[in-house]
Amino acid sequence: MISSIFSEECAYALMAEVGATPKPGLVDRHDSGAHTDMNYDTFAASTTAIVPYLTRMFEAGQAWESKDFNALFESIRPIGIEAEKAMFAATDGVNTHKGMIFSMGTIAAAAGLFYRRHEKFDAEKILMLAGYLCYDAMRKDFQKIDRKNPRTNGELLYLRYSTKGIRGEAQKGFPSVRTVSLPKLRSAFSSGQTENEAYLNTLLTLMANVDDTNVLSRTNTVIQGYVKSEAAQLLKIGGASTSQGMEALKKLNQKFIYMNVSPGGCADLLAVTILLYRLEQRNPQ
After folding, report:
1. N or C: which end of the chain has fewer CB within 10 A?
2. Residues whose CB is less than 8 angstroms from the CB of residue 101 and which lie 6 or more positions away in sequence, other chains included
3. Domains of the chain, residue spans
4. Superfamily (CATH) of domain 2-281
């Protein structure tokens, strides 16, 4: 049954992201990065809690018969709220995956809908479809922001920097995944890199190219630029594929911990990338 395959790959992708080690400023197998309220086990508990809800979003897309994509997105939003409650219950109130529930949930519904029509997975087309699903809802969300009283970090950053964060990324069909991380992950595996190397190098590529609102919310635009330049420099010396790069990664982690920097938005995009890559590998040959 295709929904069980999706569920399996979804759980794998979430744990593969957190398991990639060493990651700068992020939770991994060795430490908690710049986070004091969560660790690897917190993510494991959260993953177990939210995967059934992400699978329900995939199944909602797979069962969708109407051509009204906006209505499909609105139909999965309540499932997302349930997923958040399950996450908080599993983690004693720690926000491990709130952004991920939105990103992966939207993509899950799009993947289910695409599979219903084509009986295969195509990462780029699924991402574009995800953009169509949520476009109107995201436009309305931005219009409803109270400029005098922003309710979330995302709204505050939008008003301060005009950055739309993950909602803007989703609205455009996840261009950072389509044009940055998917090509990088594919080339990493085709060049014979191990899973850990491939995931770390893909993360670094995202960090070098994406404005991460998790970084912005903790710091400022100057530090955001620093994160990009450090990731680009790391890639120039081979990233996770060289001993020099791995040593530099460990040192960068210590710097990010000291600076309270966590590129969590890029980590979410990495997990989505891993999921889509592996779903394509499940296509009939």
Report:
1. C
2. 50, 53, 54, 80, 83, 84, 87
3. 2-281
4. Triphosphoribosyl-dephospho-CoA protein (1.10.4200.10)
